[in-house]
Q: What sequence folds into this?
């Protein structure tokens, strides 16, 4: 069993060659097909002997080559799980399904894309972005670059950075460019002075042609970065997103205003009811005062009758 090591967006992963080449027509498999072609019969025999000696479930053979894969690490782990077991995990709250689908399209895994579309009850398959002739000439998973963007390290392919051929970013990273990035360290890391969170949105858009902001990035934060790198299509998406957000905020404000008006009406009604109750209490006090006065009169009448009864009783005694 041949084992391969991958650098996926800066994260190291290991898997078997059979797993990543399970679908030979995919972009992912074609990247590794040369490994099988270049293997001599002697090497293959050594790998088979190693596997038969009890390492069939482990690493029968390990290469020192690290293959760079320009993909989101979380999504690629799910893709590896699908390649191994044929099942897409559905309990991954940290992974955006749109990003996963874009990564599957990027790897050329059509069956996985169809499965993800089916999961989302979406019958309209998203049209893939057109690839220019220069991108076809460059493999999307080779020519790996390391970027230091505002202190955050990103790793991606040159073809991703140059996918929008008319952009300033593409001209910066084209081979023999007359507009290279300002600074390159001795280790070959390109230093870019930009907001790292906004650049992450730009990088994902270049990879998947999908606007993925997340919960901690606003469209207005990404707009100046998109303008700086000359990405008008991304600007258009950001402006549309802003319009939708503004529309939602407007509806929310209108709803709050209507709620406040209704609450004022309810409070006024309650105030009227309380005033009516106060009036009834005043009437009740008057009635109780009248009743109390009547009780005093009855008490005096009772006393008078008692006195009269006593006088009459004494008179009868005297007469006897």
A:
């Amino acid at each position: 069993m041949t084992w391969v090591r991958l650098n996926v967006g800066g994260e190291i992963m290991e898997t078997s060659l059979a797993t990543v080449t399970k679908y030979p027509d995919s972009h992912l498999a074609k990247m590794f097909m040369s490994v099988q072609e270049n293997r001599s019969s002697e090497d293959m025999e050594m790998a088979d002997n190693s596997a038969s000696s009890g390492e069939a479930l482990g690493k029968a053979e390990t290469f020192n080559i690290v293959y760079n894969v320009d993909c989101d690490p979380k999504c690629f782990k799910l893709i590896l799980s699908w390649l191994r077991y044929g099942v897409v995990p559905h309990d991954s709250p940290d992974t955006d399904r749109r990003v996963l689908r874009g990564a599957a399209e990027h790897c050329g895994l059509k069956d996985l894309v169809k499965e993800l579309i089916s999961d989302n009850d979406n019958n309209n398959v998203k049209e893939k972005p057109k690839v220019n002739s220069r991108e076809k000439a460059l493999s999307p998973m080779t020519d790996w670059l390391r970027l230091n963007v505002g202190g955050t390290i990103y790793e991606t392919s040159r073809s991703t950075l140059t996918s929008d051929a008319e952009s300033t970013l593409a001209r910066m990273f084209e081979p023999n460019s007359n507009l290279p990035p300002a600074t390159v360290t001795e280790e070959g890391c390109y230093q870019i002075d930009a907001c790292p969170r906004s650049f992450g949105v730009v990088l994902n858009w270049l990879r998947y042609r999908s606007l993925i902001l997340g919960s901690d990035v606003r469209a207005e934060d990404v707009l100046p970065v998109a303008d700086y790198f000359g990405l008008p299509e991304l600007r258009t998406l950001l402006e549309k997103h802003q319009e939708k957000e503004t529309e939602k905020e407007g509806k929310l404000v209108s709803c709050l205003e209507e709620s406040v008006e209704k609450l004022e009406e309810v409070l006024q009604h309650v105030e009227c009811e309380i005033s009516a109750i106060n009036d009834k209490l005043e009437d009740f006090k008057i009635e109780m005062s009248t009743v109390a006065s009547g009780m005093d009169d009855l008490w005096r009448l009772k006393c008078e009758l008692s006195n009269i009864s006593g006088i009459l009783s004494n008179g009868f005694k005297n007469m006897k």
Q: What stands out?
A: Confidence is low (pLDDT under 50) at residues 50-62, 121-141.
